[in-house]
Amino acid sequence: MTARYDVSGVPPQGGYVAKQCPVRAQWDAIGPCEPLPPSPALERRFAHGREFEREITERLLCLHADARVIGSGADRDEESKARREAETLAAMRAGPPLIMGGRLPADVTHRRVGEPDALVAAGDGAGYRPVDVKHHRCLGAGPGGLPALCSEFHSLAWEAAELRADSRALKRKEDLLQLAHYQRMLEAIGMAPPGGRHGGIIGTDGVVTWFDLDAPRWLTPSSTGRSRRRSTMEVYDFEFDFRLDIIAVAARHLADPGVTPLVVPVRISECPQCPWWSWCGPALRGGSGDVSLVPRVGWRAWRTHRAHGVTDRAALAALDHRTAALVAAGVDLRPLTAALGAMPDDTPLESVLGTRRRGQLARLAAAGLVRLGDARGLDSRAAGYSDEPLRDLPEQIDQARAALGNSPAYRRRGITRVSVPRADVEVDVDLESTQDGVYLWGALVTIRADGVGADSARLGNRSGYHPFVTWEPMSPLTEAELFGQFWAWLDGLQAAAAAAGLTCRGYCYNAAAESAQMRRLAAACGTRDAVERFVSSPQWVDLLRVLDAQIITGSAIGLKEVARLIGFSWDVADPGGDQAMLRYDEAVAPDDAKRARMAREWLLAYNNGDVAAARALRDWLDDGASGCPPVESLGG
Questions:
Q1: Minimal CB count within 10 Å: which of 158, 258, 300, 486?
Q2: Residue 327 and residue 387: Cα distance in Å, rounded?
Q3: For residue 443, which phi and psi values (nearest 5 degrees)?
Q4: pLDDT tens figures, 414-446
């Protein structure tokens, strides 16, 4: 995509604009209200990111005496920017293997500016590749997935990188879009190496992880209505040019309020941290609520709904579920609705659709539609979605109805009795971590009276909350040792339960976090096979999946939201991940012992609350959840 509007008046933009919400780019240009300040948690993330970047810079400069340092990027006046751009270009022409703190010459034609953390020379000296420093992991445990092509700090070049067979690269779109931005800027000045586009990320793994920016990585919509995979470069070019258009039209709107801005608010994951949420939030919540407030309605689905005139939850809830289910199953209902009135009602449907559409005819027959007259019961508005079928359309209808219903929760279609796997010995597990690693594994053991026999004495005094925690500076060794202690304890508990003739299960809420960290750390502890057997077995239960498969609420179902649903509350004020991050900084601070002690107590109480909330949820699912009304009661 190239910009469709005249963008010559748009100030050159950094790569961040391509990875941020397009609505944010618009409000940044218009300023519809006073922006919200960054939250303390966001400020913390920025500060830790800057400190991490400083540490990495020092390590690299110690290893590369011939590196060129351009200078501070703190000066923001135009003269200092121009000076740094000139120094960076001169350095690249001189050809040192590493350039730190550079500012690439502005690409005025394409409206780009950029300051890569590092520029690494190609192995043959023919140009530079961009490298950014990010305070997060870039590698996951185990083979499969994206190849982990990594170079060590002492030999940074892409040509020196080697594949790590025991790891996989963790791709983050925002990181790779930033690299694509620098790549385009290097191409504009003739300093990009020939023969492929690659960029690197230095994360907390302590290596440069290289990514092929031309590889088709991202599943995106196409003009045909089907999705296709595009490269990072393709995605970046579209997103950046789109935002240039948005900013150009925003400038026209400022000059003439009669000009309509290009985009309207839509709820996405980054909204709570956006400075313009105080503007978008009330607009989205007005009336019955924007359709993007429905869980799992992403950008593509939101756009499809708007194309069909469905812009709020009430309109989505009004669609017919049976019709939507046929559309989601791939049945094109448009020929049927078009034939109504033009052909007799007793016309067999195969005469309308043709005999080759056997699968569609079978699905129609299963839904009670055999002749054309049967189609009169279809919802023409829902049938119109056949032009761009949404597989989740029936689910989205139920979610919208649940959001607007009188009950806080409903049983999903077909669920007559809510069930949850139980055991004689139940262990709820929750972890707390920072970008540097996991510092706390909390476990709550419950021995259920109705499943305990005389041999239960072998379990000893194991009931209650068990924290495995370290307040020492986080390192790979410290993190692995802590996990080793936790795993040895958990493995021992399972063995003791088995010896007592009791069943034992572990529980978590959203296994994506705990399972991934357990797999990663097991590799360092030599327990990979044992951990994999456990997290892949029925003895490891994800309560989020159990809940989501049977209960529908029409809103977010994070643990804190679900806890309110079942009447559970924490013993600490303002429980949440953001607050935990701030408390952790206090807990490990060496200069205030009293404050550190209070922060540690808060974190342990918070973690204890998380595992207790999971146990309370399990009890509710096993007892009270079946009393929720069925979602079918909200309409057909």
A1: 258
A2: 9
A3: -135, 135
A4: 999 999 999 999 999 999 999 889 999 999 999
